[in-house]
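ok trying this again, last paste got cut off
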Amino acid sequence: MTQLVYHPAFDPYNALLRTCRLLDEMADGIDVTALRVLDFLLLFPEHLAAVRLSPALKGAVRRLKAQPRFPYDRLPTPRALFRRMAAPYEAAVQTLVSRGLVDVDEKTGVMRLNEGVVPASLMSLTKLRNEEEADLMSVLQQLGGEYSAYGPGGLKDRSHLDEFLYDAV
């Protein structure tokens, strides 16, 4: 894929920062697949309105009044965009794992941030960005805590971003 302009959706370094931001909010860790869905919603919060949510979360999403961050971009459908974002996202996760900044439990697939290992400059940027978007981060934290990633009723199903029918649940 050739790009003539920059877009954060296809930038592994931006994906690395977004992943750190999400993991900073998820103290108990989160499944890698669920994290990928939340990463998409962090970058494109306007798509939260299309996710099937509990009534409490629906109210929180309505209060966000998320506007498109990139109103002048011509982007593909959310599902196609989610697929195209897979390679840069995987590169970011592999970098985090190889540097020891995150731990991934091989058995459960749960990822946790190693705050003691993460450089102070990255942690301060992560916390600053999370404070700037505290309402959005709160909604994403609730979303990640309330729903699993897999199967009917999981994040992949509710967001319509990925296939869920053949998930082992």
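PB: full thing came through this time. The first strand starts at residue 30 and ends at 31.
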